[in-house]
Design goal:
The complex is a heterodimer of chains A (596) and B (190). Chain A has 596 residues and is mostly beta strands. Chain A contains six helices and 39 strands. The chains are: A mainly beta (596), B alpha+beta (190).
């Protein structure tokens, strides 16, 4: 059993400081000495002078005076001295340095055998200008709700070569490193020389998600915009910026022959302390899932600036009074009897179950509510808490995601906070699970949260319920990736779920060419109902606040479920019904840590 | 504009291989052709052909405001069931319904097809009015209308509920007010 150090707040709950430019300058001052590193840095470039010429970017004249000090002249300008660090990975040298007195620097990957070079120009305090320009181009308002994000690293990527090396000696079209999708779908467990353990998943060509096993205890996965660059078939450059969080930049050279990494991490922690170090690491491939581009699409094309999904920036936080008004006066369940239709995430919902009309049902949850139901017809029910004479009316929808396994939902009392009940009951064994969704979290009023209850039920024709056996938590879904097609059409509304730990998942939205695109994550809950049949719930925390609960039948590759949401347009309880494909699985259980 | 086209003294010009739209490149096409009325001015024919190329290229590149500027003040537009009248209305259609993916169907890309051999441009005797037929394939997209997180993210990266290519033709009319402007444009699926 592993020991994990957990954090009181996960990344999406940390209120990172909105530092001024002057504060960032001050924090970065030590970077002029170059990065630290637990492993021995290389002196491979010591005493050498090289000039890196990039195609559309800077020309960089380097004089590596020693293994730790260099002089750089940018675009023929005056040379400046800086500390630096370098690590070798076979033929590649990763160099990291900042430009003293500025908030910017360079991370170089130089291929000593071909003379090709990739240059990451990394800088801070650049978000405001770039966001302003991007907003003007897209004709929208710039996003500054979370501040100017001076702490967030920005990067420009330049491809080029070392002047006078074989890359250009032969004439003709000069080869270059290039963007790629060849890492897409791969997962790696890394252990770094500084004992940091991390699970990384390269599930899209724009984003990656990772589980910080050491720094955050491995509870949640988080996502970051990323770059994937191919050097050759076994060597790659991967980088990410933890946008929406600390803004930290990470770049590493990955060698898939021996699954090693050489990396650099540059940024400010949640305590605004500088992290600037290089590292080496050894990895294990945890899996390779399917990708969905057509054959021949190698993901080399990039147009326009990289997209960054900023849910924390765009999430509209409502006040107590605003949410209360929505809960009490603008609540709708399944179209209030008109049916939920096939909109949203319910495009492939199955036929609603109506044959319980006229029947009664009693569910009794361990350490939870006991509720009596009277199904008036196929759309409306009456319910009351056991022992309460007061029957309430509510709209409901019921589905049968597996043989004689039923799942229905309805709103509970019109109060603030407001709740709903989602009830799964199994006519083959008398077991039931009730997921109670409720508005509000300690962080935002218009988020929701689930409370799980396991128990039993009784209705006409139901078996005697077991005394001790219950549905329960499971980690059987951990590592699996499943695409979900919610809407008809080509491609319709489609995403991929990655069930990353017993407490979290991430979702991937495909780009028009089938490659993975934007990605985000949330906490998740998994319980087992039958073999191959699970209830999975998630809350889009710091995102849309929605609670989704699906009953997923792996034999059918189909689900039935419900969405519970409160926002400016009201409180809603709606249906989820989608078709699934299995995209693969990562073998990560052994890395997750403490099992319960 | 149909009245203009019906004039017995009209001059017509038949384009051959003219509507080259690939990758938004406005390829110059040879201007040849004549009718009973005589040979149309090469400059008018070329200007109209280029106007159409420019318009479709601007729509494809989502330069919607610039696309709207190519229409006459009283123009009409109908693209796969989405229409507007007047230059201001067309601007609103592009800037709002198209840009924010609120239209039920959106033209997102164009490409040439074999039927462009049947393209034609007819210039009126007054050299101030013209009609044209341009054949091409259109990528018709149905935007995602949902408001869930997945749909919001999909829209951010240009994803649609449905994409399909279909063959069709533009029936267009033009008016010259110093320079040629589109006075009506209607897309008809084959």
């Amino acid at each position: 059993m592993s020991t994990r150090t957990y954090r009181p707040l996960q990344m999406h709950r940390i209120a990172y400081s909105d530092l001024t430019e002057a504060q960032v300058t001050q924090a970065l001052r030590p970077t002029s000495n170059g990065p630290s590193c637990k492993s021995a840095l290389t002196g491979a470039l010591a005493g050498k002078r090289i000039k890196i010429v990039t195609d559309e970017g800077p020309s960089l004249d380097y004089n590596f005076r020693s293994a730790r000090e260099l002089e750089l002249a940018e675009n023929g300008g005056k040379a400046v001295k800086s500390g630096y660090g370098a690590l070798e990975s076979r033929n590649l040298v990763l160099v990291s340095h900042m430009v003293p007195g500025t908030q910017r620097g360079y991370q170089l990957v130089v291929d000593q055998s071909t003379g090709l070079a990739t240059v990451f120009e990394v800088y801070f305090s650049g978000y405001a200008a770039e966001e302003t320009a991007a907003a003007a181009q897209a004709k929208r308002e710039p996003q500054f709700k979370s501040g100017h994000r001076n702490r967030e690293a920005q990067r420009k990527v330049w491809f080029g070569h070392v002047e006078g090396t074989p890359a250009v000696a032969g004439g003709g079209a000069a080869p270059r490193h290039g963007y790629t999708n060849r890492l897409e779908g791969k997962g790696v467990y890394w252990k770094q020389d500084n004992d940091i353990e991390i699970l990384e998943f390269y599930l899209t060509v724009l984003y990656s998600n990772f589980i910080e096993l050491t720094r955050f205890g491995g509870e949640l996965t988080v996502c970051a915009p990323s770059d994937y660059i191919m050097v050759n078939d076994h060597q790659f450059i991967y980088s990410r910026i933890e946008c929406e969080f600390s803004g930290t930049f990470t770049l590493q050279v990955v060698d898939l022959f021996d699954v090693t990494q050489r990396g650099v991490r540059l940024g400010l922690t949640d305590k605004d302390e500088l992290e600037y170090y290089m590292y080496t690491g050894k990895g294990e491939i945890t899996g390779q899932i399917a990708t969905f581009e057509v054959f021949g699409n190698n993901g080399e094309a990039r147009t326009g600036p990289r997209r960054v999904y900023r849910p924390i920036e765009t999430f509209e936080t409502l006040t107590d009074d605003q949410v209360k008004d929505q809960c009490l006066n603008h609540a709708v369940a399944f179209g209030d009897g008109k049916g939920s239709g096939a909109a949203g995430m319910g495009g492939y919902k199955t036929e609603p179950v109506t044959h319980f009309a006229g029947k009664k049902l009693s569910v009794r949850m361990d350490n939870g509510p006991a509720i009596d139901y009277d199904f008036v017809d196929g759309k409306q029910l009456k319910w009351r808490y056991r022992g309460d004479d007061h029957w309430r009316e509510a709209w409901y929808e019921m589905y049968e995601p597996d043989d004689r396994l039923y799942f229905f939902a309805h709103l509970l009392d019109a109060e603030f906070p407001r709740s709903c009940a989602m009830v799964a009951f199994d006519m083959k064994n008398g077991l039931a699970t009730l997921v109670k969704g409720t508005t509000g979290t300690p962080f935002r009023n218009n988020e929701t949260h689930p409370t799980y209850y396991f128990g039993v039920f009784q209705t006409d024709g139901s078996p005697t319920s077991p005394t001790y056996l219950r549905h329960g938590w499971t980690d059987e879904m951990v590592g699996h990736c499943v695409t979900w097609n919610y809407q008809r059409g080509n491609p319709g509304l489609t995403s991929m779920h990655f069930y990353a730990t017993p407490n979290t998942y991430s979702w991937i939205i495909f780009q028009p060419d089938g490659s993975g695109g934007l990605q985000w994550s949330s906490p998740g809950w998994y319980s087992k109902v039958r073999d191959g049949v699970y209830i999975m719930a998630w809350v889009e925390e710091a995102c849309n606040g929605t609670l989704g609960v699906i009953l997923f039948n792996q034999r059918l590759m189909h689900d039935a479920g419900f969405g519970f949401h409160v926002g400016r347009n009201g409180l809603s309880l709606s249906v989820v019904g989608a078709r699934a494909r299995h995209a693969g699985k990562f073998d990560i259980e052994q890395h997750i840590g403490v099992r319960i | 504009m149909s009245g203009i086209a019906a004039k017995s003294t009209r001059r017509a010009f038949f384009l051959r291989g003219g509507a080259a739209l690939g990758a938004g490149v406005a390829t110059a096409a040879p201007g040849r052709g004549a009718t009973a009325g005589g040979v149309a001015e090469e400059s008018d024919l070329e200007a109209i052909r280029r106007l159409h190329l420019t318009l479709t290229t601007l729509i494809q590149s989502q330069s919607y405001e610039e696309a709207a500027s190519l229409f006459d003040e009283n123009a009409s537009l109908e693209l796969s069931g989405v229409g507007a009248r007047g230059k201001l209305g067309i601007l609103q259609l592009f800037a709002e319904q198209y840009r924010h993916q609120q239209a039920p169907a959106i033209h997102s890309a164009y490409r040439q097809g074999a039927r462009q051999l049947n393209d034609s441009v007819t210039v009126g005797d007054d050299r101030r009015h013209a009609t044209a037929t341009f054949h091409m394939d259109v990528e018709v997209c149905v935007p995602l209308q949902e408001d869930c997180t997945a749909a919001q993210m999909a829209r951010l990266q240009g994803q649609m509920a449905d994409r399909r290519w279909e063959s069709g033709r533009f029936e267009a009319a033009y008016v010259k007010r110093g320079e040629w402007k589109v006075s009506s444009l209607r897309y008809l699926a084959c």
